[in-house]
Amino acid sequence: MAAVRFVAIGDSFTEGVGDDLPDGRVRGWADLVAQGWADSLTEPIQYANLAVRGKLIEPIIEQQLEPALALGPTHLSFNGGGNDMLRPRTSISHVSELFVHVVRRCREEGVQLIALSGANPSGQLPLRPLIQKRGDLLSAAVAQRLQPHPDVITAWNWPDRELATPGYWSDDRLHMNARGHHRVAARVLTALGQHAPTAWWSLPVLPDARSPRGVGYYAEYVGPWVKRRLTGTSSGDGREPKYGTWIEVAPAPGQGADTR
């Protein structure tokens, strides 16, 4: 088995929603990290991704953490709390405490933890000031909780002002597009001490896509989100992880080039 065994857990941010491939699958920063890591090492790595869109932080931990650790990884990435942040009664303190639980479990199992904060979508969303404030509080609380744990590898995306600009976001304004996911992947690879292609930090702006505005935006995106909240359902209900067990990621042909 490859020396690096990398498993990712989380919600839509880690699943890769917004970075849509032509065949309908989603890719995302974690897939890109796996490929970039293999390229940087010039050897295969093992990769699994248990993240499922729409999950709150408690279900992520309850449903994904122990199965991920049971795979015997060398590295585990964790992000959560983005969906909680959109709920009015979320406890910022409780969310940040759960990050410490993940730290403890990874340490007990001898697994290197990679902790991430999500990117900041507030500039494009309704209720921008509220989302910005809650995100700032959550990001600061998690960073403070992890400060006594210097062994944790961190990739803080929320404070990245460039990543918060519209060119890094998909039509729904809530999930990053391919440019955003590449920028996050570059940050994670750099935090790991691996080579991150320079171009990944800011790929060319994507061609203008259909981006509904006004009533159209609310009908296509906000309305279904509100309906799920009222009915207690999630966009991830019934979904299986895209990589629930190990897959091998080999170095890409011509790896090492800095033009991707």
Describe this structure in words.
The protein has 260 residues and is α/β, with parallel strands linked by helices. The chain has a single domain, classed as SGNH hydrolase (Rossmann fold, 3-Layer(aba) Sandwich), CATH 3.40.50.1110. It is built from eight helices and six strands, in the order E-H-H-E-H-E-H-H-E-H-E-H-H-E. It has helices at 12-15, 29-41, 57-70, 82-85, 92-109, 128-146, 178-191, 214-231; strands spanning 5-9, 45-49, 75-78, 112-117, 153-156, 243-249. Strands 5-4-3-1-2-6 form a six-stranded mixed β-sheet, sandwiched between helices. Helix 6 (128-146) links the parallel strand 4 and strand 5 (153-156). Helix 2 (29-41) packs across helix 7, helix 3 (57-70) packs parallel to helix 5 and helix 5 (92-109) runs parallel beside helix 6. The two termini are 28 Å apart. The model has no long low-confidence stretch (mean pLDDT 89).
Task: Write a concise keyword list for the protein shown above.
alpha/beta, 6-stranded mixed sheet, 260 residues, Rossmann fold
Q: What would CATH call the architecture?
A: 3-Layer(aba) Sandwich
Instruction: Give the class from helix and strand content and strand pairing.
Output: alpha/beta
N-to-C CA distance: 28 Å
Strand content: 5-15%
Shape: globular
Short description:
This protein is an alpha/beta fold and 260 residues long. Helix content is 40%, strand content 12%. The chain is globular and about 45 Å long.
